[in-house]
Specification:
With 436 residues, the protein is α/β, with parallel strands linked by helices. It has helices at residues 22-33, 48-59, 93-103, 124-132, 167-177, 195-202, 233-245, 264-272, 315-324, 344-354, 388-398, 420-427; strands at 2-4, 13-17, 38-42, 63-67, 70-74, 87-88, 109-113, 136-139, 147-150, 159-161, 183-187, 207-210, 213-217, 226-228, 250-257, 275-282, 288-294, 302-303, 328-331, 358-362, 365-369, 381-383, 405-408, 434-435. The protein has two domains: 2-20 and 231-428, Enolpyruvate transferase domain (UDP-n-acetylglucosamine1-carboxyvinyl-transferase, Chain, Alpha-beta prism), CATH 3.65.10.10; 22-228, Alpha-beta prism (UDP-n-acetylglucosamine1-carboxyvinyl-transferase, Chain), CATH 3.65.10.10. It has twelve helices and 24 strands. A four-stranded mixed sheet has the order 22-23-1-24, covered by helices on one side. The chain is globular and about 60 Å long. It is found in: Cytoplasm.
Amino acid sequence: MKKLTTTIRKGLHGQLHVPGDKSISHRSIIFGAISSGATEVSNFLPSDDCITTIQAFRDMGVVIERSSDHVRVHGAPNGLKPPRHPLNMGNSGTTTRLLLGLLSGQHFTTELFGDASLSRRPMRRVTEPLSQAGARFKVGEKGTLPITVFGQQNLKTLNYRLPVASAQVKSALILAALQTHGESTIIEKLQTRDHTERMLKAFGGEIYQDGRTIQVMGKPQLIGQNVTVPGDLSSAAFFLTAAALLPGSEVTLKNVGLNPTRTGFLDVLNRMGASVDVLNEKEQVEPSGDLRVRHSHLKAIHLSQEDIPSVIDELPLVALLATQAKGTTLITGAEELRVKETDRIAVVAEELTKLGARIEELPDGLIIHGQTALNPQMSDRADTHGDHRIGMMLAVAALLCDRSLYLENEAAINISYPDFFDDLKQLLCEEGTEER
């Protein structure tokens, strides 16, 4: 159990390099593994989820060397090897869903399993469209892990309209399409993050996009690349939130990824009246820049279905920001939150209510009444519920309290940000966290 920092009177100050982007780190391993030659990855995120992806490919015969945040992947363009045992997906939904697409076109059978949290997450949204291309699966009774993938080397091209806005499902279909002869068409419901499309193009693949329509050519000749992973905007979001909320704060986050499909949280901050400046922008495969944020007085907003895909991972933080904003914030069209690592709609409402927030739960979102003083109510215990983003959101919420708050199941934060508490302490003007 971790005692969280409270009563920060002077705010947060300084500069910080946040860890590498999790989504891009995953994909750098996947594309490196199926390309010719070596792929060098700098600023790789060594979190539990990303290590899961590395281990899965090692288990399939790919040689991967890692030293801290630098990874070298020796590609296996002639095909992956059958693993000797079922592949452990841990808590990583990204690894699982993307591998379902990749493994569907291999020449061997693979079983995937995960931890209790991942084993509750829906997978038929991936397996059903893949089945239309000829892929074969044995799926758990509730449409969840464990799943057996019966690899098929004669997959048909896809022509599929996505019923959900999901970058993971889209990426799985793209990875399957690469193993077909001909051109596949994928049409998104709403535009989602495009890291897979950008990386595929950088590795030499043929992929074209016209609005929400994506065309993928099968059987490309992919070549290993040098990949520099920008800082993860979803990780930066916790410090952006803390600095925006705490009087006296001014923080600069260095070299953060600014992919336009990921900057929804910056748009939300601007709409709420936060002071956020983008500095030193760089245009590469993935655009990046520095983010400077200062404390601001915030106002309520309304987020609807069209806003959700680009801010899906940051919605717990939007809810926290809304507790301090002037007015009532409404979030709708976010039913996808119900099938994340936890039911994030229910958990956000539960945990922030413990701190005195006034929140109403909707089937697809939340109503948050602002300008509420936060402090532990009936208990000084908060719980991550095994969800890394809930845990970090609560650590930021604790900065607004003037009484001690203890976080249970804090190890979940290692899934995406192992050094989170050290980095938070670096920006604080008073004593940081302590163990109990």
